[in-house]
Design a protein that fits this description.
The complex is a heterodimer of chains A (about 15) and B (about 260). With about 15 residues, chain A is mainly beta. Helix content of chain A is about 0%, strand content about 15%. In chain A, about 25% of the residues are buried.
Chain lengths: ~15, ~260
């Protein structure tokens, strides 16, 4: 299984 | 000038103990409304967001917004020198390169101060969307801690499934498999002992147990924890820290290759 980085869910604010 | 005083200094000690293994360093962003921190773990799969409101402190003053770069291992070393009953005051001049921590014993017969060297940390700030989740589960924080600790001894990942039957935590590993199901339970008289499942639609997601276990280091901060789940999105694990604020953890799900 793989895991994306959290920044791929939450964009820069 | 920044100054924040908290009579219940043990809360700060517990907060730093909860975070220091997950994030080695981060910026304390201080403003007139309080102190916040956003930081990622070294592999950038989880995000910690800490909010301490100005009115949660016994005294709070911040004349100018500042980002204070903190090494949490070093802050932990200093906070270990504070007594559990001590009042703690954080102080920094504008553009200072140190943060002063002052500890006062309950009867004011011992006063100590420590200066923590600040770091310059480049950090990207992520926008956490305010959204509705498919399932929200409030449960005793000690129960969450026990589940993730027990499952960590069996497997590396956990499948969390929320259905109308309840919330099921499943794992498997070399020794075998494990399933723990919690049901909605509002019968305990104390609200903090209740388990409340708010399900909009069934959802099932897989996560690395190592991180969920790490989040449970925040257990001493709050009697309850809230887990929020939506398909294909990070799990949101939240501890309310009394009237002071909250600590929130987000962890990206494991997905099939």
């Amino acid at each position: 299984m793989k895991q994306k980085q959290i920044s791929q869910f939450f964009g820069a604010s | 000038m920044f100054e924040a005083r908290i009579t219940q200094g043990s809360v700060l000690k517990k907060l730093v103990e909860a975070l220091k293994e997950l994030v080695t360093e981060g910026n304390f962003d201080v403003s007139s409304t309080g102190l916040t921190l956003q930081a990622m773990d070294s592999s950038h799969v989880c995000l910690v967001s800490l909010t301490l409101r100005d009115d949660g402190f016994d005294h709070y003053r911040c004349d100018r917004n500042m980002a204070m770069g903190i090494h949490f291992g070093n802050l932990s070393k200093i906070l270990k020198c504070a007594g559990n009953e001590d009042t703690i005051t954080l102080k920094a001049e504008d553009n200072a390169d140190t943060l002063t921590l002052m500890f006062e014993s309950a009867n004011q017969d011992r006063i100590s101060d420590f200066d923590l060297k600040l770091m310059s940390i480049e950090s990207e700030h992520l926008g956490i969307p305010d959204q509705d989740y498919s399932a929200e589960i409030k449960m005793p924080s000690a129960e969450y801690q026990r589940i993730v600790r027990d499952l960590t001894s069996i497997g590396d990942t956990v499948l969390i499934s929320a259905t109308k039957e309840g919330i099921k935590f499943s794992t498997s590993g070399d020794v075998g498999t494990a399933n723990i199901t919690l049901r909605h339970n509002t019968t305990p008289e104390k609200p903090e002992e209740q388990t409340i499942i708010d399900l909009k639609e069934p959802v099932a997601l897989t996560f690395a147990l190592r991180y969920l276990n790490n989040f449970s280091k925040a257990t001493p901060l709050a009697p309850q924890v809230k887990l929020s789940l939506t398909k294909d999105l990070p799990i949101f694990v939240e501890y309310q820290v009394g009237d002071l604020g909250n600590v929130r953890f987000f962890l990206a799900p494991k997905i099939d290759d």
